[in-house]
Amino acid sequence: MPLVNRKREKAKPRKSFQFWRAEEWIRNWTTGQFELWNKFWAEMLGTLVLVTVGNASIAQNQAQYHTAAFLDINLAYGLACAAGIYVAARTSGGHINPAVTISQLLLGRMNIVQAIVYISAQILGGFLSGPIVYLVYLDAINWLDPDQLENRRPTAGIFATYPTDLYKSTLPVLFFDQCFATIMLVVAINAVLDKRNSVPPMPAVPLLIGLFVVMIGLSFGVNAGYAINPARDFGPRLFSAIIYGIDVFRVGNYYWWIPIVAPTCGAIIGGYTYLLFVGTYLDDLEEPEENKPKQ
């Protein structure tokens, strides 16, 4: 029998072997099932960036000068805040601060479940910053505090805020300090986020918020280091208790609760202050032309 002529089929291109398609695997694992899961990780990572960079700047300054250079730390915290917001903004809104989250909750902009998820993520991010900074600057910490007997001051201040040693501070003054500083911060944040206002381009907003943090640090930082963020203080303070002992909660006449409660009160007051004195007035104004949708 004659051989049957068959058309040769074109060889299909061979797919290159990929041992681990990481991006696809991670995307399938983290998306589509539980939206709050994505927001949790975004808030955790954004807060981790904020607190790690900020506290590392304190450690670096102490290692170099045996005292913290205030301007350097303010700039580092401002840039770290901007970076943290950029990380989380698209996914979760970039709160990276439990006080801001509680303020949004009480203004009716999120529900209680979302708030719990956000705050848990933020505290976790702050806590995880502790071992990172500690390991990076372990040699410097041991050099600065070789005896390790008394709560390792000043290096305990790398991780959490404490009342100044320059003069005697009272708890009511320290509470008002943290509360009012957070009011100023939240009013400014609301001003640049309110679309009815003459808001800047959204990509510039995190940088502006970072500058607001620098502003607060330059004017409200000397009394106790301007925590203005419970996750920035309580998270790494929990880690520092593992290293330095329970005294981190006793120093300053049990000051530790003020960086939690005072910024939270300040954020709530700040949110309603902006709404009362500016936001309700903007309701009666025509929306700026640049903010109107194009036809």
From TrEMBL:
<dbReference type="InterPro" id="IPR022357">
    <property type="entry name" value="MIP_CS"/>
</dbReference>
<keyword id="KW-0813">Transport</keyword>
<dbReference type="InterPro" id="IPR023271">
    <property type="entry name" value="Aquaporin-like"/>
</dbReference>
<protein>
    <recommendedName>
        <fullName>Aquaporin-3</fullName>
    </recommendedName>
</protein>
<feature type="transmembrane region" description="Helical">
    <location>
        <begin position="115"/>
        <end position="137"/>
    </location>
</feature>
<keyword id="KW-0472">Membrane</keyword>
<keyword id="KW-0812">Transmembrane</keyword>
<dbReference type="InterPro" id="IPR000425">
    <property type="entry name" value="MIP"/>
</dbReference>
<dbReference type="GO" id="GO:0015254">
    <property type="term" value="F:glycerol channel activity"/>
</dbReference>
<dbReference type="GO" id="GO:0015250">
    <property type="term" value="F:water channel activity"/>
</dbReference>
<dbReference type="InterPro" id="IPR050363">
    <property type="entry name" value="MIP/Aquaporin"/>
</dbReference>
<keyword id="KW-1133">Transmembrane helix</keyword>
<feature type="transmembrane region" description="Helical">
    <location>
        <begin position="254"/>
        <end position="277"/>
    </location>
</feature>
<feature type="transmembrane region" description="Helical">
    <location>
        <begin position="205"/>
        <end position="228"/>
    </location>
</feature>
<feature type="transmembrane region" description="Helical">
    <location>
        <begin position="173"/>
        <end position="193"/>
    </location>
</feature>
<dbReference type="GO" id="GO:0005886">
    <property type="term" value="C:plasma membrane"/>
</dbReference>
<dbReference type="Pfam" id="PF00230">
    <property type="entry name" value="MIP"/>
</dbReference>
<comment type="similarity">
    <text>Belongs to the MIP/aquaporin (TC 1.A.8) family.</text>
</comment>
